[in-house]
Amino acid sequence: MKRPRYLFVSGWGKYVPGFLFCLIFAFAGMNLDRFVSNYHKASVASLAIPELEQKIKEMIESGDSEESLATASKALEKQRNALDKVDGTVGQHWGWATFLSEKAQLKYVAILLLGGILIRNLLPLPKTFIPGISIARPIIKPGIIILGVHYVWADIVKVGGVGLGLTVVFIFGTAILVMWLCKKWGVSDGLGGIMGAGTGVCGVSAIIATSPVVRSSPIEMAYAIGTILFFGTLMLFTMPYIGQSIELSEAQFGAWSAVAILNTAQLVAAAEWYGTEAMDTAVLINVARIMFLPLVVLFSLWFYVLRTGKQQPGHEINKWQLVKDKFPVFILGFFLLVLLNSLNLESLGGPKIEGSPFWAMNAAYKWFFAIGFAGIGLSISIDDMKKAGGTAFTIGMVAALVKMVLGLGVVLLIGSEWLRVTGS
Amino acid sequence: MNILVCIDGEPHSKYAIKEAIRLGLSLQAEVTALYVIDPWLKKFYNELYAQGRKQYLKYVDECLQAEAEQVQSEFSRMCRAEGLEASFIVRRGEPLAQILDEVCQAAPDLLITGSKHLNAWGRFRSRDLPRQLKKQVGGQVSILPIQATDSAGIDKLMSEHDKLAEDDWVMGPSRRCCRNTSTISPSWSTARHK
Q1: Is A327 on the interface with B (CB under 8 A)?
Q2: Cβ distance of B47 and A328 shorter than 8 Å
Q3: Which of these, A332, A312, A305, lies nearest to A141 by C-alpha position?
Q4: How far A327 CA sits from the closest chain B CA (Å)?
Q5: Which of A42, A83, A228, A278 supports an S-S bond with A271, CB 3.0-4.6 Å?
Q6: How far is B49 from chain A (nearest CA, A)?
């Protein structure tokens, strides 16, 4: 019997071990997160239960309304459930869980990223795992599409509008400025083009999209990719702590990470680490950011090739085809879900309506992210980051610092309200 | 006698080629150059959020192939200029693994690599292939890392060890000689015993 065509990717078997490893690692990370979180919640409940019991007693004595009593009883029930989950009793305290959850912010994102980095760089990870790990990274994309159920068109107009403004200034601004300065300071076109796109738009993805257009050499690409990975990873692990220390709201942090962090995967990870609200804002602004990719590639083409007359004779470039090729098609799925969520269809429900299709999708997105983060963590190799160097390193460092400082200033000025996704 | 010279197109590689040619002529040895195409850049194709992965992979392949051809042409030119007939091998993969594989298959008597003087930061960032090769196959084959400043040092080394040619490069552990100076760091590890 003939095998159906296109159903199998050739050599698919080589992806299985690494992908399975990512699945198991993601499962372990999520469960460890839940384990720590359960004990932390039990600790909180252990303190809250006596207070709530006292409050209810006082409410009964003072003859409060049944409605307020029901609310308080519900809250007490919730705390008792949290304590029951770990078979705990009132008065017990799990300080380690509170420390890990609150102070160290050991959420599944951190577990998977840090754990992945440690496994990749300290343990002898079999080479057979590498192909599967590399295909686990893009699993974030379906997660981003599913996140469309978190938004309605009003969010797209409000936060997306602010995000579009930020994107134009920071993303397109950085790309144009870096390319212009590189040209002025005699940096080769190949390096200037990919560093402009990489620091401006979406990191490694932009470098890959731009390199064939500006004809970068392999060494320039290696320097640029190493630099972006290095600063992206550095920002991923420092910015959430900076944000927390200056008490940045989740919405502000989401916007800050979306304009400052050089690589898309790292920015999604940092925002998810900071909180769901931060991630909602970051993903929306990031969507605006990656929509600019075709335009930045087109700009690079004009800046380095067409404007300077370096186009090879007989090699006509179809600009429309170039824009189409570089357009991130998956974001159409994201917008489709935003549209469906905005239509408020009964058959689809909503992310907060238990048992509905959108509720199920909302529950699933974290698993897509977890597999993607496992792939990202296990792909972060110190050897790859060691490739950072030369002029690319200086450009990357300056761009990262400027975007970080200016981005922080701008989100502080804008405030939380304009950056908060409501989802309703 | 077989000499395998590992080259990567960087400036210090040229000194390695020069030494390989010189030793090839003086010892009447068979010289083979090994160039490894490192497909490291290709593993990032999945990062692309847009279409065009195939275009990227094709572009990287073309660039890497062009670099290999350029290195081959430079090597051939240098060999022709000195009147030496030599072979050129291209392999694809992780450089260290490919060199080790070639050493296992071709069993050269001498392995010559280019080498750079590195400070502590440079050593951290570098793959330091000569050191890694020495660690992995130092006991089976003589490894000669060549730096730009080595020519004079090698002359001296050659005159001190003229007998090397007579002995067909077979040295026992007791005859192992190492040079440790601040700028010159070629070291003759124990030769492969035939």
Answers
A1: yes
A2: no
A3: A332
A4: 5
A5: A278
A6: 5
A385 contacts chain B (CB < 8 A): no
* Of residues B48, B64, B127, nearest to A209 (C-beta): B48
B40 interfacial to chain A (CB closer than 8 Å): yes
Contact of B43 with chain A, judged by CB distance below 8 Å, is answered with yes
Cβ contacts of B49 on chain A, cutoff 8 Å:
141, 202, 205, 264, 290, 293, 328, 330
Q: Which residue has the tokens 């090698």?
A: B154
CB A321, CB B78: distance < 8 Å: no
Confidence band of B189 (pLDDT split at 50, 70, 90): very low
The CB density around residue A89, as the number of other CB atoms within 10 Å, is 11
* pLDDT one-digit tens code per residue, B106-116: 889 889 888 77
Q: Describe the crossing of helices A189-200 and A173-184 by its angle, rounded to 10 degrees.
A: 160
| Residue B176 confidence (pLDDT) | 30
Instruction: Answer yes or no: is the ipTM higher than 0.90.
Output: no
Q: Does B121 touch chain A (CB under 8 A)?
A: no
> Is A324 in CB contact (< 8 Å) with chain B?
yes
Q: How many CA within 13 A on the CB side of residue A75?
A: 16
Q: Which of A168, A250, A244 is nearest to A415 (CA)?
A: A250
Average pLDDT on B144-171 reads: 49
B47 closest CB neighbour out of A208, A218, A326: A208
pLDDT tens for B50-86 read: 667 788 899 999 999 999 999 999 999 999 999 999 9
